Amino acid sequence: MCAERRQILYVGLTGGFAAGKSTVSKLLHDQFGIPVIDVDQAGRRAVEESPAVLAALHDAFGDAYFTAAAKLKRKKLGERVFRDEQARATLNRIVHPAMLKIVAAEMKQAAERTPRTPYVVVDAALLFELDLHKKMDVVVTVWAPLSVCQRRAGRRDGLTKTEVAARYQAQWSMAQKIVGADYTLDNSTTRAALRTAVRHLHYQLLDQAQQKRRRG
């Protein structure tokens, strides 16, 4: 284990679809300057920066999911994989290895670039499914009931309740994510309540980071 890995606390942040984990990571970054690694963005980079990944997706899904300029139609493919478990497994098999390499590199770079930061957040909807939780010191799950997630995603993305439920159910259940977490944030009410909860979480994570440094 490298020196940076011993000294900096790695915090896995997850939650159900539209539960608000990205809002939490943004609050931690904007209010406290905490570096955030976005695993979804790493997935996009895996597709955009790897001709091999793009070619494998084309072979697996065909021309219908690509533009004339050979760009992936992300929305169309997303609609397919959330209703087709086999297609989702194929997509994950192609993209996830390259994505995880990017995440590992970003974790190391975050520690090297900001050695004084107390902790780094890894924002990952599929934290448990990808086994990324095994590389974290602490896991935080952001929770909200399905009805609240449906309302938020409807406003944000224009998704129907059925579409939100499909995305919600394509991940580990909220019960599983809560059981696997060290901390749980309730995001079922107001933004003000969430900001207060995030502030409390930050100070708890500072304490965890200090304990890790003492262990050395």
Give structural notes.
The chain contains 10 helices and 5 strands; from the N terminus they run αβαβααααββαααβα. It has helices at 3-7, 21-32, 39-49, 51-61, 74-83, 85-113, 146-157, 161-169, 174-179, 191-215, and strands at 9-15, 36-38, 119-123, 138-143, 183-186. It has a 5-stranded parallel sheet with strand order 2-3-1-4-5, with helices on both faces. Helix 2 crosses helix 10 (191-215). The longest helix is centred in the middle third of the chain and has 29 residues, at 85-113. The radius of gyration is 18 Å and the shape is globular.
In short:
This protein has one domain (3-215): P-loop containing nucleotide triphosphate hydrolases (Rossmann fold, 3-Layer(aba) Sandwich). The chain is 60% helix and 12% strand. It has ten helices and five strands.
